[in-house]
Amino acid sequence: MSDLLERLRGRGWRMTAQRRVVAEVLDGEHVHFTADEVLARATARLPEISRATVYNTLGELVSLGEVVEVATDGRAKRYDPNAHHPHQHLVCSGCGAIRDVHPDGDPLTALPPSERFGFRVSDVEVTYRGLCPECAG
Fold this sequence. Notes:
Layout: H1 4-10, H2 17-26, E1 33-34, H3 35-45, H4 51-64, E2 68-70, E3 78-80, E4 88-92, E5 98-101, E6 127-130, H5 133-136
Helix pairs in contact: 2-3, 3-4
């Protein structure tokens, strides 16, 4: 489970009812909703919330570094609240489902010095692709 709500409270982020609902929708394990999915879930909890508020709140959370935008294969961006927990993604090439995964080892050390071309590598993004059980079925 992500600790998004606790992180936002710790930052002193102004927690309006609308912001709280967006944060609550995003809080959880393996959460990778599109903006429209966040809007639908937020509207179910708080019917008066607007599309603009949801989209603006998502943008602010990304700017704060509390949520990561995940883009895969030209599909709609998804929002991942596990911004402070190192992980990679497993993506279904059929339906687009995304799961957080934690492979063994440090991906930074997987690239040998001879392949770094003088770069000081600071971050690695690895995406594993395949078919989920439902699509493979």
